[in-house]
Amino acid sequence: MKIEFKRTGGFAGLSVRLALDSAVLPHGEREALEALIARARFFDLPERRASAHPDAFQYDLAIEMEGRRHAICLGDRDAPDEIRPLLERLVEMARNAR
Fold this sequence. Notes:
Layout: E1 2-9, E2 16-21, H1 27-40, E3 48-49, E4 57-65, E5 68-75, H2 84-97
Parallel strand pairs: 3-5
Antiparallel strand pairs: 1-2, 1-4, 4-5
Helix pairs in contact: 1-2
């Protein structure tokens, strides 16, 4: 599984980025990410759900998994509740990768 993630915007305008190949992750971490992706029904989400909200975060996320690739762009206020744990985990991983 390959993940490309970027969060931009917010009050301070700070961005975080992450490019990840799950092959380098410990087995448990890889399984946890796959579970978050499944719970979010990521591959069923529309490609674009972003709307312009001043000082709100915008998320760009692309995942390649099991021969499928899907990319979405969404705003913090428009993000479905089911995807929030995945977004939070990816932000945490991006910060830790610095």
